[in-house]
Structure formats: structure tokens, C-alpha cells
Amino acid sequence: MLTKRDIPLNQILAVERLGELSIASAPKITKKVRDDSAKEKFHIWFNTPLRQPRSLIGMARQLGISPPTIQKWKKEIEQAEKDYSSGDYFRSRKKEIDQGMVESVKRGNAQMAKLIKQMSGEFVEKSEITHTVLTADDYSRLSREAEDELRNELQRIREVSPESSLLPL
After folding, report:
1. What are the DSSP E strand ranges found in 22-103?
2. Which of 55, 74, 86, 104 could disulfide-pair with 112, CB 3.0 to 4.6 Å?
3. How many of the other CB atoms lie within 10 Å of CB of 60?
4. Shortest CA distance to 116 belongs to which of 127, 106, 126, 130?
5. What does the alpha-carbon distance between residue 117 and residue 124 come to, in Å, rounded to a whole number?
6. Tens digit of pLDDT for each residue in 51-80?
């Protein structure tokens, strides 16, 4: 029969944390705790650019996990990355974000205060639109300038020799 001395301390703690008194259930719980720890280590390893060991099989050996389990964990990570939406992430944490924004304003962050006002619709950036009103004298002056410009351009066109023209005469 097993006694508490025969079972490693982490197994006993795992059983006591769950409120179970049965020592027989300790090995099953320990495997789950070990798998979770190995999975966490795998996630860290998988997201590290320079991995040691370099292969999935090597990591499986190091963690004492079967290669199919490592492959399953890899697929879970890849699927989670494919399904990830930052919009969903931020919407799911809206309350936390709002609380953080308020705390930031309390600490004196003016930019955050402006952002909160913009988001609530209380602050709208104003843009200036300048309207120019032309008088009759302005219209006359602009008309003369346009006529002078057209006359000068017409004279320049007439001065160009017909030999330099690309159009047939």
C-alpha cells in the first residue's frame, strides 16, 4: 500500500489543492500538471526564434512527450494564430481597457483624456474653412491677367517656325 512518503511532494500538493484525500488519484493528476507544464514550455519554445533543440522531435524528447502530442500542440497554436482577431481581443477586454484609460487620465495623461473625449463624441476637431469673396475689381483684374496670358501664349506660338512643328502643313 502507498503512503505519503512514497509519492513525490508535487503529487501530494496537487491532490490536496483539489481537495481530494485519495492518494490513488495522485498519479493521474500529476500527469495532467506535468502535461500543462510541458505544454507551457513548448509554447515558449515554439515562439522563440532561435530554438534549442531545433526540431519538434528533439523538443518532444526533451519534454518527455510523444511526437503526436507535440504535433497536436503545434496545430493548436497555428489554428489559434489563424483565428486571431485583434478586434475581438480588444472588444473582449473593453472594460479593462476603459479602466486603464481612466487611470492614465488620473495620472495626468492629456493625450488619453483627449482620446476619451473623442471616443465619447464630446470632442470634435474643428477645421477652418476660408471663403474668399471677390469684388468686381478683383474679377476685372483676374480677367485682364488671363487675357494677357493668352495673348502672350498666342504670340509665342506664332513665333515658332513652321519647320520645327511636328504637324504637317
Report:
1. none
2. 104
3. 20
4. 106
5. 8
6. 888 888 999 999 998 999 989 999 998 888
Buried b / exposed e over 127-159, threshold 16 CB at 10 Å, is eeeeeeeeeeeeeeeeeeeeeeeeeeeeeeeee
For residue 2, CA distances in Å to 16, 20, 48, 112, 132 come to 16, 16, 42, 61, 96
Which cell numbers hold the place of 96? 479593462
| Cell numbers given for 79 | 489554428
Q: Give residue 83's pLDDT.
A: 83
Residue boundaries of the structural domains of the chain: 4-84, 88-120
Q: How many CA atoms lie within 13 A of 27 on its CB side?
A: 3
* Cell numbers describing residue 56: 519538434
C-alpha cell recorded at residue 7? 509519492
Q: Tell me the per-residue pLDDT of 113-157, one tens digit each, with 9 for 90 and over.
A: 888 888 888 887 788 888 888 899 999 999 999 999 999 988 888
pLDDT digits (tens, 9 = 90+) for 36-52: 788 888 888 888 888 88
